[in-house]
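Deliverable D5.2: sample structural annotation.
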Amino acid sequence: MSKIQLLSSRQESLLRTLLFTTTPVSYKQISTQLKLSTRTIQREVSALKSILEDFNLKVVSKMGSGIMIDGNLEDKALLDKTMLKANTFQIYSPEERQEGMLFDLLIATEPIKYFLLSNKYGVTEATISNDLDKLESTCKQNNLTIIRKAGFGVLIDGLENDKRSALSKLLHKDITFEEWFELFQLSEQEEKTIESSQLNQSVCKRLRKFVETSNILKVEHAVKEVLDSQTVIELSDRSYVNLIVHLILAMERINHQVNYVSEDENILPEIETMEEYIVAKQIVQKLERILHISIPKNEISYITLHLFGANFSQQYNSSTFNSDNDIEWYDLTQSFIHAAEKELSISLKEDLSLFEGLLAHLVPSVNRLKLGLQIHNPMLKDIKQRYPDIFSACQKAGVTISTKIGKEIPEDEIGY
């Protein structure tokens, strides 16, 4: 067995962080990025010395700046290529283990035995059981249930839309919209080696946990080519990223042979007559050719819903409200503002820009909810910490909307 095959996942992440940097990286930066102590980093750097020597490379320290890997580009590329082919053994933190288990269960086609999870994550079955206890609340927040039975194993039960939403949240976690967009803007040269691109290594590290990274840009290019060739659909950058993330996860589930077609879930009966369905079908056909897979017809419908919801959001703004049928939207907006005023003890009636902005946001938001589409707000945690009173007021005001539309308003929407 070669030395490279004895690499731990932690050591691999450290190598990838340093391998192609042209300037020293401080221990503080590495610590923040990899969530390791300075002492652990120093210990791992020392352990990597012999491996680096095999590739004519070495770690050098720059006083007051940090550390970097010294050597020529060809040797660095060879090490990178070797790491990609090697099967490193994984060291999981409790958080990483629980996220990995959640992903495994969400894409599983049948119950997973405890011993399989125990072997994969290198912990006892008792630890696996404890992790599942901690995942109960996460699943409950997504309207999902963890089912555990002796001799049966463990599985996650729930509606297809809720499973998709949970998977999307998992992939979005710790990756901002800007980082996704940066990934899609990689140059042609960088695309050839997405793993070793200058993109924040923590993003690539997170993606590698869940999806086949070599397919990410293939999916993005396929969608871009189809959208650029038509004039029916116009997506915002954020909606575009959400669609790509949805497709990346869908392709991953197909690769795992997940049979997620559910007979009892109601996708719009007239969906095949929609303009967006034609575009969705073109995207699916292109993905099938590029990835050499067969995509279920049901997936076209889910892509259509994404396109319709996003397209509706882009086209519908306050200037389009000009008929009697739009009165209910005005009333809904007024109800929200009135409820927020009551909670905050301030008057917002004269703020016309607030009314117009909220009106333009509520229409696509409500329609997304009715279609079962979810958005993810990467700023949610920060918003709740910095503006707790305003968030609480909006949350309570949101109840008035929930009551009228019969759909609960998720925290991600409240944050926006």
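Annotation notes: The chain has 21 helices and four strands. The mean pLDDT is 78.
The annotation will be released with the project's public dataset once the embargo ends.
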